[in-house]
Amino acid sequence: MIQTTTSIRLAPKRETQAESRLTELLRSELPRRSARSRRDPDAADGDPEAIVAEGLGKSYPNGTEAVRGISLRVGTGEVYGVLGPNGAGKSTTIGMLGTLVRPTSGRATVAGFDVVAAPKDVRRNIGFAMQEAGLDELATGRELLVLQGRLHGISRREATRRADLLLELVDLESAANERIGGYSGGMKRRVDLASALIHLPPILFLDEPTEGLDPRARTAIWETLERLNAALDVTVLLTTHYMAEAERLCSRIGIIDRGVIVVEGTPADLKAAVGGRHATLEDVYLQFTGRGFAEEESFPAEVIANGREAA
Amino acid sequence: MKSTSPTWLLTKRTLVQFPRNPMVLGFSVPPVLIMFLVFGALFSSVRHLPGFPTDNYYEYLAPAAVLMTTVPGIANSAVALATDFQNRYLYKLLTTPASLGSIVLGRLLADGARLFIQGGAALLLAIALGAQIATGFAGALLMLLIGTLFAIVTFGVLTANIALKTKDPATVQAVFPMAFLLIFLSTAYQTTDQIESGVLRAIVAANPTEYVLRAMRDLMLTGYDWQAIGVAFLVILGLGLLGLPLTIRNYRSVYR
Questions:
Q1: Measured between CA atoms, how close is A57 to chain B, in angstroms?
Q2: At what angle do helices A17-36 and A215-232 cross, to 10 degrees?
Q3: Cβ B96–A126 below 8 Å, yes or no?
Q4: Half-sphere exposure (CA, 13 Å, Cβ side) for A64?
Q5: Is residue A132 part of a domain?
Q6: For chain A: N or C, fewer Cβ within 10 A?
Q7: Contact check, Cβ <8 Å, B97/A128
């Protein structure tokens, strides 16, 4: 196994007004967040991991084995990426950790709570932005965020305050009162992301956060995620099939193939393991799976270029 | 501070959004108006037959008009639920501490409130055509309550389960004609005495809609028949209890 580290790679940028107010808000929320994310009494003492999966698997009645025993540990504040092609088991894995898919084997805890035994406790501690933005198209951006906050038990006034801050953070303040049905794909992703953060969760799940977006929208989401991570310091588990996305956003990457994590480590360590500084994550994938990513899985060259420029 | 119930929050979400989809509100009136005009023209002479309970056929039709509004109308809940599945918003809601039960109930209650009002519009239409309600305003409210609750526990629960199972709005819509069967196979348009076929009479006697309709018709034509009202509520309760295990089973299928 590659040597791993939990350090955050994302360089904080100049803080916007919304970010500084969010940071302030988060600080005032910290005692509550700690209380809310109290650990399962059965969990190991002093366990620093925000997410732990041990042999987590999912089989369907028709015999399909979507996930064949995933084991991973994500430290508090870490940005962990599950990288793999379509159909590798990424969405099923994040779905099980996010309590939307019932595991058929193994065990997982999120914020110290078992995903099967205490799903409501898990949900209180997570924000989840889906692969296809799950949104109410008749609602306005602000209404969506406020409702999401209210469902997490936040007062109307506080939910509205946070909604305004988050909409500003994701550059949607001018569209806050417009119906989501009229938003572009990128705007939908951003409002979905903001709605996942309304209750200031200590853990954030992002399932293919830039899937289907054009290069400009992708770069905008990446920048938003970097700003969010710098402002909120949340633990992030994201799935992606874009090498550049994993490399840019994640402090550690687990490569998933046919329902199992075949290797994990920092992007630098992974690349070093297969041939040094000129190696790419694609080389890593090829080395550990014996196969390359399909042509359609490759990240468009112009996006990689845009991403690097923006970085 | 006690937090607001997720069911109420989700009911409110739907209520706020009704005016944004005016088709749902507006399209309940034309079918009822057509029913009054067409059935009124076709069958109004039955009021002259001995034993027919009223001289005004619109009075006889009015409870059926309420059910014609509420029973098919509640299926919009299931269509919306299936749409929430399809655009994945339902999964977004499921990542909050709100239970699936709250999500489904919130939608059903909001649609129940809408149908209560739309059923009221059907009654107003009957009044405009010369009908009178024997039990007055209070009786009208009770009639609307029975009609709405019956719609929720029958067609509402059935179509919500179809939505949970198939997650497909088109499949839910395909079940719509079943709502009319429930109403047509009853004494909605004529009394039992006028149904000649023994088989059809047996079907009418076995149709739960019939018992709800009888209570509503009594409220419209004669007065408070508490026994009939009691039977109607028992039918509603019984159907609700019958639908429960099916619903619980389909709830489980949501978490794949």
A1: 13
A2: 60
A3: no
A4: 8
A5: no
A6: N
A7: no
A147 touches chain B (CB under 8 A): yes
What residues in chain A have per-residue pLDDT under 50? Answer: 1, 3-13, 30-31, 34-41, 43-46, 295-311
Distance from CA of residue B13 to its chain's centroid? 21
| B79 in contact with chain A, both atoms CB, cutoff 8 A | no
Using CB atoms, which residue from A60, A123, A130 is nearest to B96?
Answer: A123
Find the CB nearest B97 among A139, A151, A155: A151
By CB atoms closer than 10 A (0-12, 13-18, 19+), residue B46 is middle
What are A214-241's pLDDT values in tens digits? 787 788 778 877 877 777 678 999 998 8
Chain mean pLDDT for chain A = 79
Give domain status of residue A75, yes or no.
yes
pTM for this model (two decimals) = 0.78
B199 touching A, CB under 8 A? no
Kindly report the nearest CA distance between residue A177 and chain B, in angstroms. 14
Could you tell me if B23 lies within 8 Å of chain A, comparing CB atoms?
Answer: no
The tens-digit pLDDT sequence of chain B (256 residues) is 556 789 999 999 999 888 887 777 777 778 888 888 888 878 778 777 877 888 888 999 999 999 999 998 888 888 888 888 888 888 888 889 888 888 888 888 999 999 999 999 999 999 998 999 999 999 999 999 999 999 999 889 889 889 888 888 999 888 888 888 888 899 988 888 778 788 889 999 999 999 999 999 999 999 999 999 999 999 999 998 888 777 777 776 666 5
Please give the backbone phi and psi of residue B59, each rounded to the nearest 5 degrees, phi first: -65, -40
Which residues on adjacent β-strands are paired with residue A114? Answer: A109
Chain B: residue whose CA lies nearest to A100 = B255
What residues have CB less than 8 Å from B245, skipping those under 6 apart? none
B10 phi-psi bin (left φ>0, alpha ψ -120 to 50, beta other): alpha
Residue B88 to residue A132, Cβ atoms within 8 A: yes
Which DSSP category does A179 fall into? Answer: B
In a domain, A137, yes or no: no
Q: How far is the C-alpha of A311 from the C-alpha of A292, rounded, in Å?
A: 26
Q: What is the CATH number of the domain that holds A95?
A: 3.40.50.300
Q: Are A203 and A50 in contact (CB under 8 A)?
A: yes
Helix (H, G, I), strand (E, B) or coil at A127: strand
Are A208 and A187 in contact, with CB atoms under 8 Å apart?
A: no
Q: Which residue of A has its CA nearest to B87?
A: A134
The rounded radius of gyration (Å) of the Cα atoms in chain B is: 19
Asked if A116 reaches chain B (Cβ–Cβ under 8 Å), the answer is no
Closest CA to A194 of A215, A164, A218, A220: A164
DSSP state of B133: -
Q: Among partner residues A132, A135, A151, which is closest to B98 by beta-carbon distance?
A: A151
